[in-house]
Specification:
Blueprint lengths: L16 E3 L2 E3 L6 E2 L9 E2 L2 E2 L13 E3 L17 E2 L3 E2 L6 E7 L3 E6 L3 E3 L1
Antiparallel strand pairs: 1-2, 2-3, 4-5, 6-7, 6-11, 8-9, 9-10
Length: 116
């Protein structure tokens, strides 16, 4: 164990471990390939969704996992469509500005959406 593993790209945890050909974070359960460069969905100035599609202002996206919303008893369910997104230089990786029906205006990370 003289080789050090990179920290988790999602939560920056230093406790990552190898599981076969993947690296795994025990704190947030994020799995990634060591060959892929850690990026927050931004490469060469292009914001990409969770599967690698380039996003643009005005696109429609689908939330791919359920999200908790601060101050709300209910969260955003997986499969929720978000129309007319706006790409911003957000805080803490939140690079999509949008309005979700039933929740109002909010920011999302590009890593939790897929282009519809």
């Amino acid at each position: 164990m003289d080789e050090t593993l990179p920290p988790c790209p999602e939560c920056s945890s230093a406790y990552t471990y190898e599981l076969g050909s993947l690296l795994v974070c025990p704190e947030c359960a994020h799995e990634w390939s060591p060959e892929t460069a850690p990026s927050e969905g931004v490469a060469d100035g292009v914001i990409r969704d969770a599967v690698g599609n380039a996003l643009a202002d005005g696109d429609t996206v689908t939330v791919i996992k359920s999200l908790k919303v601060k101050g709300s008893a209910v969260g955003i369910k997986a499969g929720t469509k978000v129309r007319n997104i706006r790409l911003v230089d957000g805080v803490d990786g939140h690079d999509i500005d949008c309005k979700i029906d039933g929740f109002g205006p909010m920011q999302l990370k590009s890593s939790v959406v897929r282009k519809a």
